[in-house]
Amino acid sequence: MLDVDTTELLERDEQLAGLVAALSDVAGRRSGLLVLVHGEAGIGKTALVRQFCAQMAGSVGVLWATCDALFTPRPLGPLLDIARVTDGELRKRVEAGGQPYDVARALMDELDRSSPSVVVVEDLHWADEATLDVLRLCARRVDSVPALLVGTYRDDCLGRSHPLRSMLGELPSGLSRRQELARLSGDAVARLAGTSPLDPGELYERTGGNPFYVTEVLAAGGGRIPPTVRDAVLARAAGLSGAARDVLEAVAVVPQRTEVWLLEALVQRALDGLDECLESGMLRGEADGVAFRHELARLAIEESLTPHRAVVLHRRALAALAEPAIGSPDLARLAHHAEVAGDTDAVLRYAPLAAEHAATVGAHREALHQYERALRFAAGLAAGQRARLLERLADEGFLTDMREEGLAALDEALAIHRDAGDLLRAGDVLRLRARTKGDMGRTAEARVDVREATEILERLPPGIELARTYAEVSCLTMQADDAEETIAWGQKAIALADRLGGDTDTLAHALNTIGTVELGRGTWEERRSSSEASSSRAVPASSDTLQRGTSTYAPRCPGSAGIRIWNATRTRESSTARNTASRRGRNGCSRIRPTSSLPSGCGIRPPRPRARSSTPRRARWRRSTPPGSRGRWSERDAGTPTTGIPSIGLRRSLVRSTISSTSLR
Asked: Cβ(103)–Cβ(136) under 8 Å?
C-alpha cells in the first residue's frame, strides 16, 4: 500500500487534474497513454504522483517501481519491483535476465489483463539502458492496453548524451503527454511557513521555492535557517535517539530501498529504532523494506558518516547481500558495496560478472561502467587478466559510442600483450583498434593497424582472429572505394571462416561488406541479383545456422548479403541495434535517406555518377600477391579521398550491435 503524505500540495492543481484527465481518457477509450512528470530534484514529482494514486485508490490497480541510484544501476531493476507484485510470466522473464522485448511483451500482457491500471516508474534519470528499452517499446504500443504509464524524471541533470534524452526524443507524440512542475511562488512558501518563526521572505530566498528544501528547512524547526538542505536534514536527524540514528545511517548506505532482513544485518536491534524513524517522517515504509522519503535526505546522511563508519556498514551490506535471505545475489549491488568498502577481491569478483549480466540484457553503458570499476581495483591483477578487462571495456565502449575510452583501453591492452610476447592477442587487439579507429573516421591509422595485425597473424597458424582481420581489411578497403579489392579480401575472410567452422561474426561482417559493394553496381535488379548470388556462393548449404530467417533490416538494404544472416547471429534486441546505429551517424547514417528511385523503405541513396579520373585515390590498397595467398600492401597516398558507399557506417553498426560481446573479442 502506498504511503501518502497528507500535506496539502500547493500550486499543483493543474498537474493533478492533468493526470486525472489522462486516466479518464484511458478508461473511456480503453486505450493507454504515457504521462511524464518532470522537474528539478525535490520539486515534488513523487508527492504529486502519490497524491494522484491515493485519489484513484479503489478504482484502479497501481504498480509502483523506482529506478536505483546506484553508481551503476541494476539492469531491469525497476521492472523487478513490478514483477514481484504481478508474479507470473513477467517475473520469470525479468529474473531470468530476459531481453527487453521479451520483458516488454510480458508487461503488456499483464496490463491487458487488468482494466484499467496505473504503472508508475520513478526516477527515470537513473534507469539502466535495458529498462529504458523496455519502456521505449511499451510507449510505442501503450494504446493497445487499458493502462496509464506514469514516469518521473529530473530534467536538471540530463546532459545531451544522457540515455534518457534518446528515449524522450523517440516517444510518439500522440500517445504521450508531459507535466512540468515549477518551483513554488513566494505566496505558496509563505503559506507553507504558516505560523513558523522563520521569515517567509528569507525562507523563499534561501530555498528558491523548491518544495523539498522548504519542507525540510521547516521540519528542522526554529532558529536560524540552515544554509543548506544537508544541514536541515542533519538537524532533523539529530533530534532522534541513538538507535534511530543508527537505523538512518544504515538505510543511507543502501540506495533506494533497504529490505528489513538487510537492515537487521546492518544494525543490531534495528527494529528498536525503526518505528521512531517512521514516525518522524524521515523514512517511509514500503512493501518489503524502508526508504528515505527524499533521496537528497539519504545523501545528506550518507555524506555525514565518518569514513570508518561508512566502511563498516558497506562491508556488512556486502556480506549480507552475498547470501541474501530472499532471492539470488544482486551483482550490481554487490559491486557497488564492494567498491565503497574498498574490498579489492570483491570488486574484481562481482564487477565483471555484473558487467556481463548488464551486457546480456542490453545495458551496455552499465556494463562499461562496471568494467571501469573493476579496472580501478586491478593494479594487483596479472597482466593478462588486466588486458582481458581492458578488451571487454573496449567492446562496450564501441557499442555505446564511448570510443575514445575504448581506444585508450585497447592501447594499454596492446602494450601488455607486446610485453608478454603474445602475438595472437596482440594481432587481435590491433584488429579491434583498427575497427574502432575506422568508425571514428581515422581510416589512415586504421589501415596501419590492420596491416600490422595481418602481418602478425599470418605468421601464426590460421585462426579465427585472422579471418576477422581479413573481414576488417575488406571493410576498410571498401571505404577507399576499391570494389575488386574489397570483394577479394571479403572472400578470403569467408573462406577461412568456413574452414574454421563458420564464425558468424566474420561471415556477417564479410558478407555485409561484399553485399554493399554489389549493391553499388548495375541497375537495381542487377544489384539485388548480384548480391543474392554473392550470398549463395559464400554461405555453404550445410551452414544451417546461417540460412535461418530474414533480416529485420532487409528493407533498409535489401542487397546486402550479410544482412541475410541477421536472425542467425542476433543476440541483442533490435531496439538496441537501432540505438547503436543512430549513435554512429557520423560514419554514414546521416547521409542515408529514402529516394523515389529505389524500392520503398530502402533508405539508400544510389551513388552519383562521376567522371573517371586518372588521379590515384588516396590510400587505395593493392596486394602484391593474388587473393588467397599471403602478401603485403603498398599504399598510394595522392589525390582526393572518395566515398562510394555512404551507408557503410549504418550497416556495420547494425550487424555488429547484434554480435555478443564475447564474439567480438
From this structure: no
